[in-house]
Amino acid sequence: MIIFQDEQVKKLKRLLEGWRMALLTLKSVLLWEQQWHPAAIFSAVSFLYFLVWIMDLNSLATFAVAGLLLNFIDFIVPFVSNMIYGHSAWTGQHEKMFIDICNNIVVSYNKTFQNIRTFYSMRETSPTMYYIISISMLCTLTWIASSINNTFLLYILTSVMLLWPGLAHTGLFNSLFSLFNKAPKIPFLKSD
Q1: Where does the secretion signal sit in this chain (predicted)?
Q2: How far apart are CA 99 and CA 12, in angstroms?
Q3: CA–centroid distance for 191 within its chain
């Protein structure tokens, strides 16, 4: 498994070669190394979805514009990174951080697909539980999607996904859970 993971990291490093300086900056923003990073993330996502709302495109045109934007970013980021930083700015510490980023991406990717495989293996091992979970999740998703605007749902999902690493890194989840654990327990049903 480790050998397979090392091969995946090497392939990912080659794939992201032009993005390496941008990835270091992106990591610092996603982990909120400065106090203004959460506001910058939220503002960028809000501005992007504001543009989507203003353009009022249909679904197919929205996917086309998103694809164009992603292609433009994929073209311009390596070009600008090499122009700004150059190859001489790359140090051993940067290389170590880049390898760590690639390793984290591969580990998250493998863990996600392992969880998906585990869920689908429930179809063979415990079909009743599999169908209960699947049907309840799909019904809930259908109810939410029919009740709330889909663009707004994507906005919330994107914001949460981009703010999640910073929330986890700063330990806000742990402090929130510790507050709940310290709260006095109120018995709902007293036995006399």
Answers
A1: none
A2: 9
A3: 46
How far apart are the C-alpha atoms of 116 and 114, rounded to whole Å?
Answer: 5
Q: Give, for all 192 residues of the chain, the pLDDT tens digit.
A: 566 888 999 999 999 988 988 999 999 999 999 999 999 999 999 999 998 889 888 888 988 988 999 999 999 998 888 888 777 778 889 899 999 999 999 999 999 999 999 999 999 999 999 999 999 999 999 999 899 988 899 999 999 999 999 998 888 877 777 777 776 666 655 554
**HEC states along 144-191?**
HHHHCCHHHHHHHHHHHHHHHHHHHHHCHHHHHHHHHHHCCCCCCCCC
- Domain range list for the chain: 2-172
81, two tokens: 């990174």
Report the distance separating Cα 107 and Cα 102, nearest Å.
9
pTM for this one? Answer: 0.77
Contact assessment for residue 37 and residue 47, using Cβ atoms and an 8 Å cutoff = no
Count, residues in the chain: 192
DSSP state of 66: H
| CA-wise closest residue to 11 among 103, 108, 113, 111 | 103
